[in-house]
C-alpha cells in the first residue's frame, strides 16, 4: 500500500512567547495575531511573513492532508526561528519551546506527524545537548539546521563536534536555507525566495563537500530542501573546479563522489527537474516535500512526482513516502 509522506512542512506554536520583550532583542520573531485564523510573524516591528492557522493548528493540517491525500507530515520549525544570532542560552530556550511543541503535536497525532527539532548551532556544545534531548527524550526523528551560522559556512571548524555527534547518534539532518547570501541585492520581486534560497543551499552543500565534512563523516544523513536548490545543476562545475585547482583540494575524491550520499526533497516544481535528479542521484535519494503551508508550496504535495511519466511506479512509491521513512531510520510500519 502506497504511503504518502510530506517530508518538508513547517509549524510554529500558537502561543510562542514574546522573547523580544523577555530578552530585549529586536531580531526575535514574534507571532502577532491578526484574526481568529491568522497572524503575522513580526521581526523588528515589521511583518516578516503572513501566516494562517495551518501553521499551528494540527486539526487544520490534518483536514488539508486528507483533502490532498497525504498520510503523514514531517513537521519542522520555520527557519526564521533558528536564532543563531542570539546568545546561545537564549536561542536554546527558543529551540526548547519549539521542540516541546513539535513533540507534543506528534504525541497527540502519532499516525499523522513525525517531528524534526532545532538546536542553537552557534554553540556546538549546547546544540549537542539539545539534540540529545530531542532524539533521546522527546522522540523526534531528526534535526533541521540552517545553511550557515552567522555567515560561517557549514564546514566551519566550530561545527565539527556537532556533525561528529550526528554521525555517532545516526541523527538525520534537514538543511534549510536561511539568512541567504546576497540578500542586499534581492529586495525586489521576492528574489530572496526564488534566487537567494537556491543559491544559499548550493553553497551549503558545496561547503560540506569541499570542506571535507562528508569525507570525515561518511555516514552522515543529510537532506537538502527545495531539491537542493541550484546544487544539482552546478555539481559538474564544482567537479571541474576540483580538477583544475588541485592546490585547493581538501578531499581525496571530486565533489560528485560525496554528493552521492546526499538526499533532496522533491520541491522543484517540474517533472523534468525530478527526472534530472533521479538520473544524477537515484530515485532512492528523493523525498517528497511540499513546503506546507506557505505560498510557494506544491499543491497537491507530490504532484511533480506523480506527473513524471518516465518514473516507474516503484520509483514513485519510494519517492512519495518510503524514502522519507527510511531516511528517518523508520520502517514503513513505524
Automatic annotation (TrEMBL):
GO terms for molecular function: aminocarboxymuconate-semialdehyde decarboxylase activity; hydrolase activity; metal ion binding. Pathway: Secondary metabolite metabolism; quinolate metabolism. It comes from the Bacteria. Keywords: Decarboxylase, Lyase, Metal-binding, Zinc. Residues 5-329 form the Amidohydrolase-related domain. Its EC number is 4.1.1.45. GO terms for cellular component: cytosol. GO terms for biological process: secondary metabolic process. Monomer. Belongs to the metallo-dependent hydrolases superfamily. ACMSD family. This is 2-amino-3-carboxymuconate-6-semialdehyde decarboxylase.
